[in-house]
Amino acid sequence: MRLKMRYGWVCGLLLFGCETPQTEQSADLTVPVTVQPVGLGTIESVVTSTGTLRPVQEAIIVTEARGFLSLGILAEGRKPTEGLAVQQGEVIARLKNEELVVGARLESRKLAVKNMRKTLDEKEVLVERGLVTQIEAETARKDLVDAQSDYDDALVQIKKTKVTAPISGVLSEFTDATEKTLVDEGTQICRIVDFSQVLVDLQIPNSQIRHIELDQPVRVIDYSYPDEVFDGKISVVDPVVDPTTRTFRAVAVVDNPKGLLRPGMFVKAEIVVESHADVVLVPRELVLMRGNREVVFVEESARAQMREIATGLEDEKFVEVLKGVDEGERLITSNYETLRSRTRVSVAGTEE
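Request: output the structure for the sequence above.
Response:
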């Protein structure tokens, strides 16, 4: 029994002695790697949502009188039709209504105002001379007010025969009525849509609403224009949760200088809730978990050095490093998964 135990102990020594050279050889193994310098950059924390665009303002244009339709001429010399731009105040159409014009008696009412004003001036002079009473002057003043009111009413009636654009925008849903067609009061002529800016309604999850504030920058991306980014900002944050979707509503107003965005488009929006500039960034795939620590490997004097790091913001590509590596250090970017601290490395393109 004693002999067997001694034999086992001797064999153990022999085995241990046989493994020692192999372990030392592993320790001297050189791993080929690539490196890149640690750089500075800007990183953002964003909340992503989607939504449908709507115009920042629009107007439905209807007739305010009955008459025969006659289309106006826009500034560019063309008659209004769908898709053309129109400026606020431009005449879209006119309505010919002789009865309305005659009934307004515009010229006669204008003359009445002129006469009443002259009469009042005369009465005021006579009052100063003591030739008429103040009551007569007040009566003349009342007559002038009434005449002016009648004239203003006539102007309103005449103005109803001219259909003008209340806002600048693009004509849409233009009437099928042709020239000289008799149209009734309340007939829709067109819709004017202003999309120099557009609005997008966003649904924000309960877990993210605490990060959303007014005037935060927003980037909007439409899948039809993958190379275009449209800038905007948060204009509304609804404090009440939607009982149907269990989300909060936020509204972003987005600049649309080229007119590429159109109402009804479905877009992606990124709300920038935090941004850090000129900070140390490393590619997120290079950050490893060793135990409960986040680490990266850097190359120093042909050795891999494991660095524990403290991280900040993250995005899809990069991680902000608050502590652990500095700008300019040589970050190992290949064969890093199995490295240990002090492992010998050879950097591609250099001679050891």
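Confidence is low (pLDDT under 50) at residues 1-26.
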